[in-house]
């Protein structure tokens, strides 16, 4: 792994209050004390950018006031008048074409304020543009005599000009010299290249190309590959990829203790795959302490006063000198953390009270547990997640099923932080209503309430153990068992019914009463019986909403009750028995589809709605107003949208003498919308489907019980 040497410039701006009395500045002056400490590569015979150092200090208006070309040139104390300044730092020999000798530049504005100590940090990124050349095996096979690439810092490549412009040569025979660095001349924005090869069978082949708008601090990877054109001539294909300069190769001019990753950026998530993870800590002044906090647990790593090794298994350090050490996190440390993303924070101090911090995030591989935020029981979707840190694995497949079902496989999609995801979703089939598009949900895929699921992930040839998910949810239809005989619907007081209401009133008070019938659950059900006071049809009815009289002969129903939806049902189940559904004997001719003498029919329906107000229907001795049907489309009423419905017409009297269990599938107009309005549930039962039109049989009787959702 490449080692990036730390270079640290300490810029401590010490003003009058912090100076020794003999050296105190006069008037509005302050003292700026620059101290530079560095681990010099030159002592090991390597190129050291600090051997070619240029530091300049400017006033805020741009005037140059100080210039230093080496560390020895800089005075220990520099007196400056309080005000604004800028420092620029250049390091390196500014070689325009080099294999290893990169150069750096950075600048920072700072302000000298009276009676304060100011600390500044200057980051100097590399100014070079990198090129890394590689040759596919096909090049070696076809160009057996020679093959090389010239790269020039010029907008257009010319072989004759390689001695006049910055140029490097990359040979197939020398893979160790595959990388080079350029500084583009003024006015040049491109890198250009020329491939020259010779093969026994191919002869000489030349091809030229350009990397347009080449950027500094960027590596351009050029991979050369041989192929044959349709005409049979030789062709060189070049793949160009870009990547940030390795290891964020910057000089950091920072007086505080600092930390960086060994071979990775602290800004990127670290994928743990079994190898030790290292962090390099450095300080201008001697390090005093280093601590590590992982999630909510803090570990002591280093204490200069005791020089003891880290006590926690899997945490160690290698001390380079009093100012530098490497923290090593090993397998025993990572074994304490489960699958997922985890936070690291390092806190460092030096022996002069300076402090520094650094944060990182690491990813532990494996299949992640599904939490409530990962699945949605209204959209019936679930997002599976797995962390895969093995770079060799690209084939990730998730599978899920009910415990007795077949596995359903979904390919994983790679995202950020080593995370692969896949989403389980339901299928939909179109309903049979040709007038309005409706959809039935398919429960063979997707995630539904009150079920158990298993899920797993396959990464390459490895399969994880299956995990389990239970989607138990408590979402009932309030008082749907009809056991409470004190419900408003069984009385004549329905103007403020909390859930169930009926049209019971002073002249027809038996439209909905507690009843019993063979096959019901519990002790009670609801008995709906029609009546005809003053020869006006009053169908037996039960619904969610309100009812009140408007005068002597007009009744008003307000459909809709508030309901908090936790999960999407696929149907509503209900028990019923139509004891009598006769022929229509009352028809006020207000527009009902049936007429007097026709066989009457009862109806039960449910509607999931998103209304801002209840919907009113008024009927009696005059033509009704507000009549509606949830099957008439999502915009059938002005109070808001109808999201879905289920409906059942009972065409005549039931047989068998015992309650019949019916399931009303829910047809959805909208596959995504979830009710958010004030009123979201309508259930309606009527002994005459068109009773609001004053048409029906006045002696119909029907029993209903046990309303519940199906998922």
Q: What is the CATH class name of the largest domain? A: Mainly Beta
Continuous helix count: 2
**Count of all domains:** 5
CATH topology assignment of the largest domain: Jelly Rolls
Distance between the termini: 56 Å
Low-confidence stretches: 1-26, 35-44
Mean pLDDT: 88
Strand content: over 45%
| Biggest beta-sheet profile | 8 strands, antiparallel
* Rg of Cα set: 40 Å
Q: CATH architecture of the largest domain, please?
A: Sandwich
- Please state the structural category: mainly beta
CATH 4th-level superfamily of the largest domain: BT2081, beta-jelly-roll domain
The total beta strand count reads 55
Which outline best applies? elongated
Secondary structure: helix percent:
under 10%
Describe what you observe in this structure.
The protein is mainly β. The chain has 5 domains: 7-124, Immunoglobulin-like (Sandwich); 129-247, Immunoglobulin-like (Sandwich); 256-364, Sandwich (Immunoglobulin-like); 367-470, Immunoglobulin-like; 488-710, Jelly Rolls. It contains 2 helices and 55 strands. The strands form 13 sheets. Strands 41, 44, 45, 48, 49, 50, 52 and 53 form an 8-stranded antiparallel beta sheet that branches. Strands 7-14-11-17-18 form a 5-stranded mixed beta sheet. A hairpin with a 5-residue loop joins strand 17 and strand 18 (234-244). It is elongated and about 115 Å long.
Topology:
Blueprint: E1 7-14, E2 29-38, E3 53-59, E4 64-68, E5 78-81, E6 83-91, E7 97-98, E8 104-112, E9 117-120, E10 122-125, E11 129-135, H1 137-142, E12 146-152, E13 167-171, E14 179-182, E15 191-199, E16 203-211, E17 218-228, E18 234-244, E19 250-253, E20 258-261, E21 270-271, E22 277-282, E23 287-294, E24 297-303, E25 315-321, E26 324-329, H2 331-334, E27 340-350, E28 355-364, E29 366-367, E30 375-376, E31 381-387, E32 396-401, E33 408-411, E34 413-414, E35 419-424, E36 427-430, E37 439-442, E38 452-459, E39 462-463, E40 467-470, E41 500-501, E42 512-515, E43 525-529, E44 541-549, E45 554-559, E46 571-580, E47 586-587, E48 602-611, E49 615-620, E50 640-650, E51 660-665, E52 667-668, E53 679-686, E54 695-696, E55 701-710
Parallel strand pairs: 11-17, 21-28
Antiparallel strand pairs: 1-2, 1-9, 2-5, 3-4, 3-6, 6-8, 7-14, 10-19, 11-14, 12-13, 12-15, 15-16, 17-18, 20-22, 22-26, 23-24, 23-27, 25-26, 27-28, 29-31, 30-31, 31-35, 32-33, 32-38, 34-35, 36-37, 38-39, 38-40, 41-44, 42-43, 43-55, 44-45, 44-53, 45-49, 46-51, 46-55, 47-54, 48-50, 48-53, 50-52
């Amino acid at each position: 792994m490449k080692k990036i040497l730390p270079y640290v410039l300490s810029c401590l701006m010490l003003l009058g209050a912090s100076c020794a009395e003999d050296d105190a500045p006069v008037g509005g002056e302050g003292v700026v004390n620059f101290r530079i400490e560095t681990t010099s590569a030159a002592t090991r015979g390597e190129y050291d950018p600090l051997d070619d150092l240029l530091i300049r200090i400017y006033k805020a208006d741009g005037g140059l006031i100080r210039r230093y070309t080496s560390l020895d040139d800089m005075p220990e104390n520099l007196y400056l008048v309080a005000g604004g300044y800028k420092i620029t730092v250049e390091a390196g020999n500014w070689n325009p074409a080099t294999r290893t000798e990169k150069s750096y530049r950075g600048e920072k504005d700072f302000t000298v304020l009276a009676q304060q100590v100011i600390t500044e940090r200057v980051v100097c990124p590399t100014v070079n543009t990198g090129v890394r050349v590689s040759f596919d095996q096909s090049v070696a096979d076809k160009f057996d005599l020679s093959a090389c690439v010239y790269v020039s810092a010029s907008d257009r490549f010319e072989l004759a000009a390689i001695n006049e412009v910055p140029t490097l040569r990359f040979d197939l025979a020398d893979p160790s010299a595959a990388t080079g660095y350029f500084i583009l001349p003024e006015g040049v924005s491109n890198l250009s290249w020329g491939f020259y090869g010779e093969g026994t069978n191919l002869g000489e082949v030349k091809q030229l190309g350009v990397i347009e708008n080449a950027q500094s601090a960027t590596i351009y990877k050029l991979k050369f590959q041989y192929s044959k054109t349709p005409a049979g001539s030789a062709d060189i294909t070049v793949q160009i990829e870009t990547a940030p300069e390795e290891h964020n190769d910057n000089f950091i001019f920072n007086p505080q203790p600092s930390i960086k990753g060994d071979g990775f950026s602290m800004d990127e998530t670290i994928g743990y795959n079994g190898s030790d993870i290292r962090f390099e800590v450095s300080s201008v002044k001697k390090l005093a302490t280093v601590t590590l906090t992982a999630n909510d647990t803090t570990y002591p790593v280093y204490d200069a006063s005791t020089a003891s090794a880290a006590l926690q298994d899997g945490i160690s350090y290698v001390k380079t000198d009093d100012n530098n050490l490497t923290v090593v996190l090993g397998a025993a440390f990572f074994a304490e953390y489960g699958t997922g993303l985890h936070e690291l924070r390092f806190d460092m101090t030096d022996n002069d009270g300076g402090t520094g911090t650094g944060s990182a995030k690491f990813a532990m591989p494996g299949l992640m547990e599904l939490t409530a935020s990962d699945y949605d029981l209204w959209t019936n979707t679930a997002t599976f997640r797995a962390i895969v840190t093995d770079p060799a694995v690209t084939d990730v497949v998730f599978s899920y099923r009910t415990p007795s079902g077949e596995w359903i496989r979904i390919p994983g999609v790679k995202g950020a932080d080593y995370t692969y995801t896949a989403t389980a979703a339901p299928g939909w089939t179109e309903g049979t209503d040709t007038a309005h598009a409706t959809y039935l949900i398919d429960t063979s895929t997707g995630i539904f309430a009150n079920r158990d699921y298993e899920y797993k992930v396959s990464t390459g040839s490895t399969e994880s153990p299956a995990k389990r998910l239970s989607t138990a949810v408590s979402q009932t239809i309030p008082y749907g068992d009809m056991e409470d005989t004190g419900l408003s619907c069984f009385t004549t007081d329905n103007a403020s019914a909390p859930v169930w209401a009926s049209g019971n009133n002073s002249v027809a008070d038996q439209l909905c009463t507690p009843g019993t019938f063979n096959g019901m659950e519990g002790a009670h059900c609801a008995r709906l019986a029609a009546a005809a006071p003053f020869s006006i049809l009053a169908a037996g009815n039960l619904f969610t909403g309100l009812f009140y009289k408007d005068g002597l002969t007009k009744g008003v129903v307000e459909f809709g009750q508030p309901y908090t939806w936790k999960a999407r049902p696929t149907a509503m189940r209900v028990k019923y028995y139509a004891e009598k559904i006769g022929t229509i004997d009352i028809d006020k001719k207000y527009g009902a589809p049936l007429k007097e003498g026709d066989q009457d029919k009862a109806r039960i329906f449910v509607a999931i709605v998103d209304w801002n107000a209840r919907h009113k229907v008024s009927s009696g001795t005059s033509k009704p107003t507000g009549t509606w049907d949830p099957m008439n489309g999502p915009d059938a009423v002005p109070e808001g949208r109808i999201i879905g419905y289920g409906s059942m017409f009972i065409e005549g009297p039931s047989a068998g003498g015992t309650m019949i269990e019916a399931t009303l599938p829910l047809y959805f107009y909208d596959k995504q919308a979830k009710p958010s309005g004030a009123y979201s549930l309508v259930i309606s039962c009527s002994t005459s489907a068109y009773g609001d039109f004053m048409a029906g049989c006045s002696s119909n009787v029907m029993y209903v019980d046990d309303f519940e959702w199906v998922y």
